[in-house]
Amino acid sequence: MSRSDPALHRIAALVGNPNSGKSALFNALTGARQKIANYAGVTVERKAGRLALPGGGSIELLDLPGSYSLDAASPDEEVTRKVVHGEFAGEAIPEVLIVVLDAANLEQHLVFAQEVLELGHPTVVALNMVDLAERDGLTLDPAALSEALGVPVIPTVAVRRKGITELAAAIAEAKSHADEALHSRWRLTQPERRLSAKHMARGAILSKSTRHTVENGIDRTLLNPWVGPVILFAILFVIFQAVFAWATPFADALEGVVGSFTGFVTDTVPPGLVRDFLTEGVLAGVGSVVVFLPQIVILFFFILLMEASGYMARAAFLMDRLMAGVGLSGKSFIPLLSSFACAIPGIMATRSISDPKDRLTTILIAPLMTCSARLPVYAVIIAAFIPPDSVAPGVGLQGLVLFALYVAGIVGAMVVALVLRGTVTKGAASGFIMELPRYQLPRIKDLAIGLWQRAWVFLRRAGTIIFVATIALWVLLSFPKAEPGESQMDSSIAGHVATGLAVVLEPIGFNRQISLALIPAMAAREVAVSALATTYAVDTDDEDLAAQAVTERIAADWSLPTALAFLAWFVFAPQCLSTIAVTRRETNGWKWPAFMVGYLFVLAYVFAGITYWSAVALGL
Ligand SMILES: Nc1nc2c(ncn2[C@@H]2O[C@H](COP(=O)(O)OP(=O)(O)OP(=O)(O)O)[C@@H](O)[C@H]2O)c(=O)[nH]1
Ligand SMILES: [Mg+2]
């Protein structure tokens, strides 16, 4: 299709990275004269408007979706590529391209700008958001940039209509050259574009404030390919140490409170069903979960701190390389990171991943990230079996084991991703460019609100889903009542179920208490802890023994290989129904949730088994 085909409209198009301000410029240039339709065959919006040119005449202006590259990755980018190449039927090649740059992120935005310029169309560059660049302490030199790019560069502030007239004039000027022959430029490779973007950005920046220089210096260290990951690893290590070291006094205090409640109920309520319900069901069960509140709060304190300070985006940037190694992009990092809180928001966050196979892979591995519901389970076993020793000054063994469990989940996820990308979700990895926010001192108030919200979510779970699941288990454990001389556990309904399950679970070292705890834990993982507490409380007639914390009962009752196998199980097992439900919703069917549950159970069983038998063989 020829550019001078008179049957077609003469058009100009706004292109640029996402969030550079294309739509804002589009609105400023066209005012209310807009038409919104869809591109043929795709759901991407075609936003067009009429731009009156200074000196008479007008041209149709297109607002294209943001893209990072003309090698289309997402449906949005595909539209941009087709439009600038004139591949859409009934759509002319744009006579003028307006490349929109974010002046505050110049280096990054210049990469795509060069790719557009290589097409050789008449082009104008809008250096947008100069107000934000100034706020960041950057003074830019549009003339130098224009020299380097070989096209006019117009500084603009779209939201304040600054530079709009100048931009329209430059578009009119470029349009008058539109009938000259195309002359494509030398094509660069992506790394070459990056390098020259760096030089051009440097040349266009006249001065920087000290703040900008300091931040760049910090980034040079934190984002250094060798030093950066070491620092990230060290930070995570400190976090997991703190989860144990700082929480202990608070957890002990909470345990004391639960203990005195139990004492109070035992003293005041006459023996019988009501007392058993309160002590064995409510206090032993729900109380055993609530004592983990300090650890949850400490973990989220650090996560919120990393988010608010701007470090989290840097961590994602560092992870991008690692992710590329297993066939995923850095885009998967944020969903996977959210999964450390809970897989449900994590899986929902995968909607931002454009490549469907990337997205599916990310959904399938999200449950392997250690969600906060697993923390109580890990913590209770670690407290029971791992002595609170120091392996080095300031390095506690318990924190180290917890750290190892988190790492095991991550490594597991990466290996699974690698396997999936080579088999069920085969395909090439897509590229990823991310904007790094500025560093900020976190505000105490925001942190406090964030922590309060997390703590409240946890307590609400304890009061609802965990409470209900624990009480249901208590009922199943308490009836029918045992004959004198029989154990309550053996005669109860739950006991019979456990005996049935033991056939499958005994080979991997699980005892009957564990078999029983795993079923209600499908509702929420923390229930495993409350279920164990209730099971042990029901299973004894000895008041003193019943009042003991679940940690002590487990320490006395389980072998170390069993405890380790239980931990290994929880690293992999798909232990919560809500995750399965959200996977069904996000993948539109039962196929992928079924696949996910299947592979996770197999991994959990195999790894728990391997752990158990290795530990037994080592004589632990
Ligand atoms: N301060 C400032 N903000 C701007 C400027 N131009 C745009 N913005 C804001 O930047 C944000 C992104 O602008 P959009 O116009 O939506 O960006 P876009 O390039 O169309 O983004 P996509 O359509 O996602 O590719 C909006 O919140 C705008 O209000 C500017 O010159 N200065
Ligand atoms: Mg837009």
Can you give a write-up of this model?
The structure is a single chain. The model is unreliable at about 1-5 (pLDDT under 50). The protein has a domain at about 10-210: P-loop containing nucleotide triphosphate hydrolases (Rossmann fold). It has 29 helices and 11 strands. The longest helix is centred in the last third of the chain and has 27 residues, at about 590-615. With about 625 residues, the chain is α/β, with parallel strands linked by helices. It has a 7-stranded mixed sheet with strand order 2-3-4-1-5-6-8. Helix 15 (about 345-350) runs parallel beside helix 28, helix 17 (about 375-385) packs across helix 26 and helix 22 (about 495-505) crosses helix 23 (about 510-520). The chain is elongated. Strand 5, helix 3 and strand 6 form a beta-alpha-beta unit. The structure holds guanosine-5'-triphosphate (GTP) and magnesium ion. Guanosine-5'-triphosphate (GTP) binds near residues 18, 22 and 131.
Summarize the structure.
With 620 residues, the chain is α/β, with parallel strands linked by helices. It is 60% helix and 9% strand.
Helix content: 55-70%
Unreliable spans are 1-7
Strand order of the largest sheet: 2-3-4-1-5-6-8
CATH superfamily grouping of the domain at 11-208: P-loop containing nucleotide triphosphate hydrolases
Q: Rg, please?
A: 30 Å
Bound molecules: guanosine-5'-triphosphate, magnesium ion
The tally of beta strands, per DSSP, is 11
Which strand-content bin applies to the residues?
5-15%
Mean pLDDT: 86
Number of helices: 29
- Amino- and carboxy-terminal Cα gap: 76 Å
| Level-2 CATH architecture of the domain at 11-208 | 3-Layer(aba) Sandwich
Cα shape: elongated
Keywords: Membrane, Transmembrane, Transmembrane helix
Organism: Qipengyuania marisflavi
GO molecular function: ferrous iron transmembrane transporter activity; GTP binding
Transmembrane segments: 226-247, 282-304, 362-386, 398-420, 458-479, 558-582, 594-615
